[in-house]
Design a protein that fits this description.
With 80 residues, the chain is α+β, with helices and mostly antiparallel strands. The protein contains four helices and three strands, in the order βββαααα.
Length: 80
Amino acid sequence: MAQRLGDETVLIHMGTNQIYELNRTASVLWELIGEGLDRAEIEARLLAAFDVDVAMLAPEIDALFAQLQAEHLVTDDDRD
């Protein structure tokens, strides 16, 4: 379950009732995952939306995907 609150998103893992807070950038990434975009499409959209260099953004995307996977909020299928 996800709820957008301003620039942030609150996620609740329904199996564990764990609550996660996503910042503005992570919230956009979460929405793009929900749209079914793959990793490359997500990166392109984030680069267009934020004034950031790909060298900084790419590792952040990978780290967030890894964290979401570790918490069982997304699967490898969501990334590809």
